[in-house]
Amino acid sequence: MAIEYLGLSEINGPLVALEGVKDAAFDEIVEFSINDGEEKRLGRIIEIYEDKAIIQVFEGSEGMSLTNTHTKLTGHPMEIALSPDILGRTFNGIGRPIDGLSPINGEKRDVNGKPLNPVSREYPRNYIRTGISAIDGLTTLIRGQKLPIFSGNGLPHDQLAAQLVNQSSLGDSDEKFAIVFAAMGVKNDVADFFKKSFEESGALEHTVMFLNMANDPVVERLITPKVALTVAEYLAYEKDMHILVILTDMTTYAEAMREVSSSKGEIPSRKGYPGYLYSELATIYERAGIIKGAKGSVTQIPILTMPNDDITHPIPDLTGYITEGQITLDRSLNGQGIYPPINVLPSLSRLMKDGIGEGFTRDDHQDVANQLFSAYAKVGDARALASVIGEDELSPTDKKYLEFGKAFETEFVGQGLGVNRNIIETLNLGWKLLHILPKEELDRIDTKILDKYYDAFGEN
């Protein structure tokens, strides 16, 4: 039964305190009615001390006073209405439509999700094609995986996020596929870029978009990824779809958590973030996966900007513990005009080996990827040597590695914005670039694979 209270006992930024509360529950949603019902807002109970409840106000506490506010406890947690009609729609950070269309009518679900028994998980198999060679070829995204992108301020992660939405597919599979896109703390011009890009490519038809703007209240940001993942789980496990969830930018989510934690007077941990940052990130990331008996899957690509490009910062550091690899964007490659500026050496996909090869991509995929990684690592050694003794003094083999490195960065990695390659084109390009090197240098490829494919791409 909903209970209504008149007045508040304390207001502190986005947090308000209500005393004399009975039968309140943690995470319960409350409705605020301000100035005799002229304005409505939502909040969430985040702490309870005996008969005192601390409430986060999603829309912020501006305009609220201790006397003009009616507070009603709803008796349920944050919920969102779900139906197949949700595809193609755009919502704000807490799931309210902002596309001018009517609200979604359907069964309401708790955005916090249900605990998932680990033994009910199935091992991720098969891959999702992004059309980007550096990802599909070398750090392949597997269905049910969580594979973050580590970026930095000023790097083109927004363009990459839009390209992933526009190009991602299940390859040649005829299974149902959709994307849930959630942006947190984005500026108006970036939000307009996303909307325009998705509309022009036609991707919006199979995308559900959540936009939390930079000028929206900070506590909304804490709900946005949970709302997005609730939609993803519904489409995957009840509508048998394979769902790719893109969350950008998880750094703004963590900073919102730090701000709210500071308002609550909690003791800070590393860099001022709350001590429960790890568990909160894990709560989000672990909602990716495949469940036994379900035909669908939830795959995650969280994007985060590393403050000062520091990969040891708490946000990328903890994210790396939880997820299965990472894709790292590089500032020096971006400075050379290479897009996407993916540095393949620190990038990896730990589940890649289980979703590629014969029956998934092509039988030479793992060997080509291993050889490209190995060759590009030697490029760094050759460049370091050339900086000491000069390029003219290098051996013929080292000069070939320099040639390979330049071609690899400009052709394979730097494929350009909007270029969509299938996996066969990516692997064929890999073979073409490997022909720059002497055949005896290709020591990471099985002899049978080398005999089968090498001559098909000409001789060095």
UniProtKB/TrEMBL annotation:
Signal peptide: none
InterPro entries: ATP-synt_VA_C, ATPase_a/bsu_AS, ATPase_F1/V1/A1_a/bsu_N, ATPase_F1/V1/A1_a/bsu_nucl-bd, P-loop_NTPase, V-ATPase_su_B/beta
Domain ATPase F1/V1/A1 complex alpha/beta subunit N-terminal: 9-65
Lineage top rank: taxon: Bacteria
Keywords: ATP synthesis, Hydrogen ion transport, Ion transport, Transport
UniProt KW Coiled coil keyword: no
Ranges of residues in domain ATPase F1/V1/A1 complex alpha/beta subunit nucleotide-binding: 131-349
UniProt similarity note: Belongs to the ATPase alpha/beta chains family.
Function of the protein: Produces ATP from ADP in the presence of a proton gradient across the membrane. The V-type beta chain is a regulatory subunit.
Designated name of the protein: V-type ATP synthase beta chain
Native species: Eubacterium segne
